[in-house]
Amino acid sequence: MSVMPALDPGREPLSRHQRHLERLARAVAYLEGHLDTPLDTRSLALQAALSPFHFHRLFQAYFGTTVSGYLTWRRLQKACELLSHSDATVLEIALDVGYTSAQALAKAMRRELETTPTAVRKGLSPQWRQLFERRTCGVETGGKQGLRPRMTHTPELHVLTAVGRGMDQGSMHRAARQALGELIPTLTQAGLMPRMKTCVALMADEPQGLEDQQARMQVGAIFDFHLRRREGQITRPEVPLSGSLRWQTLPAGRHSVFTHRGSHRQLHQSWGAIYREWLPRTGYLLRDAPPFECFLNDPRRTAEADLRTDIYIPLE
To answer: Class of the 150-315 domain?
Structure first.
């Protein structure tokens, strides 16, 4: 189904940027009015009438921080205002901004701002900068080399995935290595390595900045079908499932495919450019399906500058 209204091809690019901003503004307005209630990316995506698969990437591209980072900032900002200008108790303020106890608010203030409710009431200024530095998303594009996609129709893909954790300077290399460390031995033992023709990756979580050690990545194998060359027939062989190993099906449909050239550590910049620049400029409709990456060469045997990664964006 369509997750965004069709855009008038005769309108100027600015109006398309504005359309995304208007939708994101709905989510922000809802967030502002519900700081005292549980909020997550899915509920905010619903308010914006955007697919949860794409909402957090659009939010990061336009605002330069994560959804949860923005929410934390607004909750702590309101808490600090109330601490400075009201006689409400710390517990009352905590509940008013969405924390379950005075202790939970104090813990968040120490972790994020290196301060306490008592210090703020005494007039000391919190360290706001570090809250955002932890959650910066590197939205600068660093060039337009990845903004010339090809359009393709992708068949339904059966993917055997394993999960890894950990982002380092915007790169999910550690998570990918962990996931492959589980996936490859299983395939080797089952004699399936020669049949793994395509390796893909999906982000299971919204990363909380460029150093999010808990961010999960799913790395998966597609058997008997080379996605880039469109050679072979997709199969789903019998594999013993253990640990984080799971089968996942990616639905068939149209994709725009961008080829990122160079280090995997800069992939986040290509993602940001796609959602911040290319998508509003072209006015394509996002499909309610997960985007994913397809690795075209092996980083163990390829110079970093020669790495190639296809980014698949599902479109209506």
So the answer is: alpha beta
Is the pLDDT confidence value at 5 over 50? no
β-strand pairing of 292-295 with 308-315: antiparallel
- Range with lowest mean pLDDT among 78-87, 117-126, 194-203, 245-254: 117-126
As its CATH architecture, domain 69-133 has Orthogonal Bundle (1.10)
Strand partners, 248: 159
Residues 75, 78: Cα–Cα separation, whole Å = 5
Q: Model confidence over 181-213: pLDDT tens digits?
A: 999 999 999 999 999 999 999 987 777 666 678
User: Tokens in use for 76?
Assistant: 């702590």
What does the angle CA 68 – CA 96 – CA 61 come to, to the nearest 5 degrees?
20
Mean pLDDT value of segment 96-114: 93
Q: In the chain, what are the domain boundaries? A: 69-133, 150-315
- Judge contact between 172 and 264, C-beta under 8 A: yes
271 Rama sector, left if φ>0, alpha if ψ -120 to 50, beta otherwise: alpha
Strand partners of residue 79: none
Q: Both tokens of residue 127?
A: 């360290």
How far are the Cα atoms of 242, 258, 292 from residue 217, in angstroms, in the given order?
A: 17, 20, 10
Q: Name residue, tokens 């697919």.
A: 51
Determine the Cα–Cα distance for residues 160 and 168; give it in Å rounded to an integer: 25
Q: In angstroms, rounded to a whole number, what is the distance separating the alpha carbons of residues 164 and 201?
A: 11
Rg value, the chain, Cα: 22
